[in-house]
Inverse folding.
């Protein structure tokens, strides 16, 4: 499926040299997954150009492109970022695809297991990425790994179950991976039925096309430390691609979105009091213990 | 999770008596699935009311509600149908959820297997719904069933693999379905990891909220004979609910959408020539064999 | 067009008493505009219910509804807020409608001037809302009003031009507001053409339906002091309605969204240094003068 | 604002020669409007490629690209068409912009009259496009033109009112079109206020980016004979551009969408009876007079 593209063309369209260099080239993610850029539209300049349509003659002031992009992202003027578009070809485990697809403002064409056989490929984590349920966060895994013995047993189970289920997927259809009939006396069941026997770490693939504004939102949520490790790997690779594609936007995104901190109404009032020299405690702050803890963490204040 | 709701309230909102009767009540779909309506907004009258805002004083002519709704759907004036909204609670196998979620203009809250344990419930088809790959349609199952012996073997495999995978899902987390630790020396892996060992016929559930226009589109696609049987079952149940909720819209939908036929430019010219008494053949029609076959089928002309 | 609704019904749906009290009742905005709620779905509890589907058995901890809603909004878990829906009937000047419609995730049925005559109603600002272009902000008006004499002249022009254009709108169609033919020898031009002669302060009206998540976003942007005064008036009225409808969400919105402050990566590092007792200046902060000014303003630090 | 782009670049992206030829080049629409393509992504081949991801190994059969595109559009498999994207720069009268913006699945950056002065340009129809209200269709203009004398009077009014309103727009801001202060004793009102005095035929402009699937939908609705003439002019120009860009899609669109006919359930049964030699009349058809008339028109049967 990987269409190598060596041909080059002449275009008058905005062209991004650094992105051209990696066009079509797959970046490996996890054990069998990948991301590759298969097309794109626009660059940092297209954002500036769209903003300038809005501002018309009124923009002499913010005349430098980098400053303008910074300004747009700082003030959440997001529509100019919708003027850039990118298309990826992604291979990913189904349980990750199910998280990914929740981002609705995007276009998707997924490999259909009603039409075609899925390949014998499933995600088996590396030993170092296995860990127990987090005690503090209901949705996350903890930092602590498993004992070697337990980790090996886990990988064995994952490997065995996925392998058996895949083999039975073929058996149910009465055909080999190459499409040979196994037992001439059987008819096999249809692909759309047999696929239900596969495990959720089975790989699938899709074309995914999205505008830059929505892509930044995806990256923000999915590269967050609380996102599942596996989708973080994809999100981080996408962030690297964004850096090549639209470097000014990348910088502004890190500064004003990814690494920014939002303080609540009460949070900002606490900070003001602290700056004025007040001693503020959780009890009289009006914040819950949890919120207070989050604020102290953001301010890197160690109350130990 | 099924919140029985016996309380009643007084409201000035448009209220649909027939829908109130089945509110919160689950309709069983497949072996462990269900659909139930948990809230709704508007009725046939709300569509008429929205259309009348658009038409203002100009609508005296199409003054009867039923006629107006018919007119709107016939001419694809779809925005008034967006003025009605409905919320479902649905339990469904994951491989069906993956088809369903492709309808993007809807709101979804799905049970999260990062937060909570999934129940030991997976879809096992009835024997009569097992069938082989269709020879003529690359994406469908055929009409023909399997031999009894083969069908039994198929069900056995599906049952065994799902059961084993579910048991190992628990083992991987080192806990029982009730949350008891299995082996005190193990830590188990996090829920977000363990779930990858489940099979695609595992049941999940979600709240799904959508406007009537987009719901009709869903029903049109997913109740189509070429849709997968399992999602058809849900779509047909939804269509029954639509009939209770907005009976005029239901009728117009059957007449102008579900059972309508679209003829291509060439198709309509063929029909005109036939009506004028011409003998038309595929060869000189300008249509491909496949298109011609589809046209003859639509016109119920047997060329045998 | 204002359909008084005195009838009441019995429903098992979640019902919000405080919203029922004002259902259908128009709130006046500007000189001839209004907003009224014509239908709604869900309440604070529906948000909690949707969140609990996601969290399943995993939510015992955040068991209090108010705390959960607070948590959801603080951490931008926005999908449960999409489970509530509201429908408004709004009358507003066309130049404001053009700003409003940029919020795309909503359903709209607007009065059509192709079908029907528009009424002789246009927005004329109050004298105290007239002011000159802001010197500091390219998109805003300033705080300073006009001289009485100039203000009167402005209102005179607005009144005269709108009146003449409206009268000529009728003349172009060769009919009076009541639909009488003016000159039997003329045919008049079609409504779809004549409307182009109207001024942008002409009132229009529409039904507008939106989910709570997107509504909060609308209110955040359009009640902002930098938004145009006229749309602020509508946004503030909607915020009052939200307070009646979903009081927990309202409170969380004020605390974590409307009155929150986002500090950039550099901004938060400056705050940390200040809290540690450092003297930080704009020059060595790495921030532009403009960003520095915005930060000092957020922290209410007067740098003399 | 028209950025002439003479530079060319080397790219590995799919490139459409025929579209490159007209890139950035404005096509005049109406008296002062235009459309020009400023960027694009993909071509016919990108649609095929996306479809092939879905069909995987299962597509050998429909191997020819043109046939596949035809098949996709015939069976309303629309997602592959979302894989192409195009960006236009459009200048258009405000009353047309208001129709246009109702297509929500698109990205827009409009010239902001809060930031900048609008130019002295408004749409004045050609005499031959002036006509009276249609007697049969509540939303359309008729075929019949106006008397020369009336037409001249109409154009005079439109010209006068737009000119006066524009001049007063400047007067209200107390500045000339070039930004010179008119009366040093006045402060003028802000741009965001003054614009309300403009007429709806005032020109605005925007960048508009949309995927091919949604663009085809736009063209279908807006090039329809019942659409307003002025927006038809834009839609037809866009259709010409589509023909250059994706010629296979263009052909399939004409055949299966624009010039197709949808027959209702009853309509198709009438056709079947007619083909079987029955005489069918409106009375016993079960169709309303209006629907029957529409059917006879589609079949070009003259019942006179």
């Amino acid at each position: 499926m990987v269409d190598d593209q060596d041909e080059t063309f002449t275009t008058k369209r905005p062209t991004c040299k650094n992105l051209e260099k990696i066009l079509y080239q797959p970046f490996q993610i996890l054990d069998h997954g990948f991301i590759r850029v298969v097309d794109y539209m626009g660059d940092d300049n297209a954002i500036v150009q769209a903003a300038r349509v809005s501002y018309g003659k009124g923009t002499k002031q913010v005349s430098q492109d980098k400053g303008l992009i910074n300004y747009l992202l700082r003030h959440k003027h997001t529509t100019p970022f919708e003027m850039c578009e990118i298309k990826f070809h992604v291979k990913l485990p189904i349980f990750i695809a199910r998280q990914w697809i929740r981002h609705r403002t995007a276009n998707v064409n997924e490999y259909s297991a009603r039409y075609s056989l899925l390949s014998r490929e499933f995600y088996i984590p590396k030993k170092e990425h296995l860990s127990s349920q987090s005690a503090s966060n209901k949705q996350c895994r903890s930092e602590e790994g498993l004992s070697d013995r337990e980790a090996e047993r886990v990988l064995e189970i994952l490997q065995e179950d996925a392998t058996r289920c895949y083999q039975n997927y073929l058996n149910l259809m009465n055909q080999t991976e190459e499409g040979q009939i196994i037992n001439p006396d059987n008819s096999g069941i249809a692909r759309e039925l047999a696929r239900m026997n596969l495990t959720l770490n089975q790989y699938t693939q899709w074309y995914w096309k999205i505008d830059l504004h929505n892509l930044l939102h995806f990256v923000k949520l999915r590269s967050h430390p609380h996102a599942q490790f596996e989708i973080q790997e994809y999100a981080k690779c996408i962030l690297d691609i964004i850096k090549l594609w639209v470097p000014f936007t990348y910088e502004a995104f890190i500064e004003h979105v990814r690494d920014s901190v939002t303080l609540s109404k009460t949070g900002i009032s606490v900070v003001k009091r602290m700056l004025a020299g007040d001693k503020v405690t959780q009890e009289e702050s009006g914040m819950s213990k949890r919120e207070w803890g989050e604020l102290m963490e953001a301010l890197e204040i160690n109350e130990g």
User: Anything to note?
Assistant: The CA atoms of residues 124 and 158 of chain A lie 7 Å apart. Chain A touches chain C through 32 residues (CB under 8 Å). Chain A has two domains: 1-123+201-260, 265-298.
